[in-house]
Amino acid sequence: MEEKKITWSTLGRIVKNQKFLNSLIWPEKKWLMLGMAFLSVLVSIFPFLRSGAEALLINLLTTTKNISFYNQDLIFYAVLFLVASFIPAFIRSVDRYFEMIFWYYVDEKFKFLVAEKNSQLDIATHEDPKKKDLFLRVREDALFRVRQFSERQFRFIIDILQIVIALGVLTTSSWWLLFIVLLSTLPELLVESKYGRRTWATRADQSENWRIFWRYHNYLESLRHVVEMRIFQNVKYFLQVMKKTLFGLRVEEKRHEKDRLHDSFLSQVLSQGTLAAVYLYFIYQVVNGEILIGTFLFMLASLGTLRAGLSGLALNLARHYEDSLFMTDLVNFLTLENIIKSRRQSYKLSRKNPPMVRFDNVSFSYPETNRQIINNFTLEIKAGEKLALVGLNGAGKTTLIKLLCRFYDPSSGGIYINGHNLKEIELDSWYDQIGALFQDFGTYDMTAKDFISSGRISPSASMREVIAAAKKSGADDFIKKWPNKYEQMLGKEFTGGLEPSVGQWQKIALTRVFYRQPRLYILDEPTASIDAEAEAKIFEQLENLPDDITVILISHRFSTVRKADRVAVVADGELKELGTHEELLAQGGEYARLFKIQALGYE
Ligand SMILES: Nc1ncnc2c1ncn2[C@@H]1O[C@H](COP(=O)(O)OP(=O)(O)O)[C@@H](O)[C@H]1O
Ligand SMILES: [Mg+2]
Predict the structure, then answer these.
(1) Bridge partners of 358?
(2) DSSP letter (8 states) at residue 6
(3) Which has fewest Cβ within 10 Å: 41, 262, 312, 366?
(4) Ligand nearest to the CA of residue 367, numbered in listed order
(5) Half-sphere exposure of 199 toward its Cβ, with a 13 Å CA cutoff?
């Protein structure tokens, strides 16, 4: 953990964070920021104008006998006093308006920056448990604090200007007074910053527990999980775990609050006591005729503003410091570098050449693990070939797909597309050729048509193509029976939504791949939840794809697999057998064994 103590480098860090955020905000909101700065200056000046005019007014009234209502000085001071009294109300309204506009802007800006960054980070970074804590702190805390942090710089203008002006006023009385007042504020500053740091440190220490808490919290909100919990009768158990976790998390925070109460009480005694002494001193001066009543009131008001400015500054500095720790998280997050890097001068694949894929002696272990999941895997997939990958659960089939999509880089060996190492290919030009259906595909709450046409983003989704794709996957059969047909809202959480069955979801997801019209289909158990008859039809579609379209299909159904041009059998991350269905059967190896087991089941 960094930054346990407040040092110059922590202050440097605050400045750095502020600079980083402002460099994002300033170019887009110059005028708003300048406007807010200007208003802050006005806000700090007006209280002095008002109490100054008031002092002059009182001095005039108390020293001039039989003063006329039309006395020139009187009129001038009175007008000054009135103007200085009512203008701040208008300033405050405008200030509030600017502030809200600024808040909304910062909130939107950073919500999107974080979402965008999340989507750009590679899978390996997302799966890194250490990064997960950072992600959580960014989502739960930093996003909420970034608004305060960027807004508070204007508070500083007010605090500092008020202090400077008040000091200027009070020095006309006596300068040693200032020292006492300044010194008495110091403990407050120390107390605030001490607890600011603790709050962050506790949060940071307990990130993982907070993650557990939120995970359980989400389970209880997800229908899928709640249904399971009810039937397993363990809702109570989940609630108890949550309670225990939250209670544990709060124990330390509650203790901090108690300590803080104690410390801030002491620091208040000191500063309020000092103030009382200074008041007495001023009264003494008035009694001795050293200052006029109006001046006395002006000094009191200035002293009050000075105190307010100083404790405001202390409080704001402390909060700023606390927020800055979270801002460091945000800055770290926004500047995270991907592990998988696209070279600057990378090779662009052309859609003209159908992709030929070659795994060349690929070995791979997942980051931060020791077990080698893929072992010296070599396989060439010709352009236009329909290849089936088979193997037991955990053999490494999905991992091979992830490597092919460059979610990870091989630990050794390489993957080549048309002879170019995947590491040197511009990923966008590669993804342009791929249509993938992952085993754990995502479902989206949008209309069927929007979801399917999201397979290929173009200015106008063609309904004709959507339907044609749905016919290939067999989804058309049920979509056209829905009340709103292709405009049907998917997912039950939105008005008029309808929950497709698991198999239907899979068909819809597959439709999206067909709609994309890729050069390379990557299908990871695309028909796992689809009935045998529909599956046969889908595979017929895949078989009938033009000769230059490649298909890599993972499936456990041999009725489908047997129709592929070639079958690759994967076991323990190695390529065990390769050939046509007939060849592999004749070999009498693993493939033949698995095939016979399934065939027996049908007899
Ligand atoms: N993200 C991951 N991190 C670490 N290990 C993983 C990860 N994903 C999969 N594995 C491991 O890799 C092995 C192969 O998994 P996978 O490729 O999904 O198998 P298959 O698709 O053939 O069933 C399994 O032992 C699994 O536990
Ligand atoms: Mg798999």
Answers:
(1) 380, 416
(2) -
(3) 262
(4) 1
(5) 19
Closest residue by Cα to residue 245 from 212, 287, 198, 292 = 212
Q: Is the pLDDT of residue 3 over 50?
A: no
pTM: 0.76
Number of H helices, E strands in the chain: 21, 10
Instruction: Give the position of tokens 């005019």.
Output: 53
User: How far is the CA of 8 from the CAs of 192, 328, 334, 441, in angstroms?
Assistant: 17, 16, 24, 50
Non-local CB neighbours of 313 within 8 Å, separated by 6+ positions: 156, 159, 160, 163, 189
CA of 399, closest atom in ligand 1: 17
Q: Alpha carbon of 195 to those of 137, 307, 322, 363: distances in Å? A: 18, 21, 8, 50
Greatest Cα pair distance in the chain: 125
Query: Do you know the residue count of the chain?
Result: 603
- In angstroms, the CA 2 to CA 9 distance is 11
DSSP type of residue 474: T
Rounded Cα gap, residues 429 and 424, in angstroms:
11
Residue with tokens 């259906």: 437
Cα distance from N-terminal residue to C-terminal residue, the chain: 64
| pLDDT tens digits along 214-263 | 888 888 888 778 888 888 888 888 899 889 988 988 888 888 889 989 99
The two structure tokens encoding residue 63: 């020293």
Could you say which ligand is closest to the alpha carbon of residue 526?
2
How confident is the model over 493-507, as pLDDT tens digits?
788 888 898 889 989
Q: What does the DSSP 8-state code read for residue 486?
A: G
Whether 558 contacts 598, CB under 8 Å: yes
Nearest residue CA, atom 7 of ligand 1?
Answer: 366
Which residues line the pocket of ligand 1, CB cutoff 6 A?
127, 366, 369, 373, 391, 393-399
- Measured by CA distance, the residue closest to atom 17 of ligand 1 is 396
Residue 365: what pLDDT?
93
Å from CA of 464 to ligand 1 middle: 39
Residue nearest to atom 20 of ligand 1 (CA): 394
Cβ atoms of 345 and 330 closer than 8 Å: no
Residue 263 buriedness (CB in 10 A; 0-12 / 13-18 / 19+):
middle
Q: Which CATH class is domain 8-334?
A: mainly alpha
Closest ligand 1 atom to residue 402 Cα is 17
Ligand 2: centre distance to CA 129 (Å) = 22
How far, in Å, is the centroid of ligand 2 from the Cα of 399? 7
- Nearest-atom number in ligand 1 for the CA of 396 is 17
57 closest CA partner among 78, 29, 88, 41: 78
Cβ-proximal residues to 126 (8 Å cutoff; 6+ apart), any chain: none
CATH number for region 436-517: 3.40.50.300
Q: How many CB atoms lie within 10 A of CB 339?
A: 14
